[in-house]
């Protein structure tokens, strides 16, 4: 038995450039740090008599509520910056799609807390000074230290939130939206002076000022290091260029990239990069593409579907074109898989990271099933490679073809009469004992996850990557 | 000019203009002629000095029977200047006035309308600068103590 296992293992082209497994304490550290920062600002407020003032009623209570919401709003703002700062520990602990969801949630929450802060502080101060609220607000903006800046910061954040409401976001070009979104950094920065100079919880206490400066410093530092410094260093070190461009089928193009010291690039199968091709106009927009082949240290491959959003440029790329990347990102990796049954479920272009995983995961013949969902037979890509995996690695490939079902389901229309989880068990009977990798569009991924959980897959063995966020 | 250039120029221009505004750099507020808060100790016969001649260094002026008035130095605080004047007769502080304190906005006015009389009364009771700061008015209290100390020094009271 041992002999067989060894023989199979050596026969398989398993490559593990850097078997970095994410320590299990990473999510604990991230979550604890976020919770602690919220706890500290609440404690600051309590320490300054916030609770007594709130219970005391009257204008003081309103102002106290205003201070609390202000503290929480700015803390959440900084947490949002940290969520998006591409800090490796955070990325590996939670994955970018989850981080992006939390970022959106924290964004809107901090915005509304900020609105409540402005309203309650204005009303509280106005009541204490016996003036009307509008006059008080005007007075605050022009005479309180740092308040003109805070007002400008508020306007910047209002603009960012307004352009991130889904309806507005759809109307904007990505580039415009992204540039406007950068004003959030400005908004966060402009809010700092009024907190330190007029915030009642800061003027009295050196410790709280230190805490606040530290939080701001760490956020700014994280952005500089991980969003700018690290990608710049990686690009300088690896100098990726387009090696060749290969059409894969209708609207599908593979790009092979070469570079220097690629074996030292800490990328794993299933991960993605943000790509910028320096080939004239449109280069400034980064697009997320997964590696569609296992990174072997000599070349990288991505496969791009023409969605009309800049991805059409890819087909026209010339060999030698310089490429800038940010990454690698993504948690859809084999780091927690050490053998046994594995079920990979793809929809459309979502097959690309699963294809690279097929080349890296150390499964044995008969242990792996790839379920590949596409609308038509013509849209099935990589047939040659899938056949290779079927023949040489014993991968079972199941295709599910047909138009979308008229209910939210991962099945095509003609199979949608069956229950989602029942069909999953039928196609892959070993699913409950397997590691399950899912990649596809969001509306399709949700029912797959539900079906897998219902079929008995534990959540920590269910790995998903959303394709758009 | 491309739209992105225009955006960046406008943003920089707005930032420069905003940072040239006084409150954006935490520079001290201009000294406004502040209302005079006065406190007189029960035994004193001091006349109300009404000393709005706010020199920034301490000074002393004799006003006959009531005693001598010593004006403390101006203490600059985040919210504006604070200046204290004391009237001393027979080695006792008989009156305290605060000719300058922050009143620039409603919040200052509201806080200091409460804090300044408290500080004055505490000074008269303690006959020294060993008094408690008023909670919620830490900044004014600190400025008050600094100016009071310089007035006490000028009067050679400890």
TrEMBL record, chain A:
Signal sequence bounds: none
Biased composition (Low complexity): 1-12
TM annotation in the entry: 25-46, 66-85, 105-127, 147-168, 180-198, 210-230
Residue intervals of the FAD-binding FR-type domain: 235-335
InterPro entries, sorted: FAD-bd_FR_type, Fe3_Rdtase_TM_dom, FNR_nucleotide-bd, MRET, OxRdtase_FAD/NAD-bd, Riboflavin_synthase-like_b-brl
Source organism, top-level taxon: Bacteria
Keywords for this protein: 2Fe-2S, FAD, Flavoprotein, Iron, Iron-sulfur, Membrane, Metal-binding, Oxidoreductase, Transmembrane, Transmembrane helix
Membrane topology: Multi-pass membrane protein
Region (Disordered) location: 1-23
Subcellular location: Membrane
Cofactor(s) in the UniProt record: FAD
Record's protein name: Oxidoreductase
Taxonomic source organism: Actinoplanes palleronii
UniProtKB/TrEMBL annotation, chain B:
SMART domains: FMN_bind
Domain (FMN-binding): residue spans on this chain: 77-155
Biased composition (Low complexity): 38-63
InterPro entries given in the database record: FMN-bd (IPR007329)
Region spans: Disordered: 38-75
Domain of life: Bacteria
Signal peptide (from-to): 1-24
Assigned keywords, A-Z: Signal
Name of the protein described by the UniProt record: FMN-binding protein
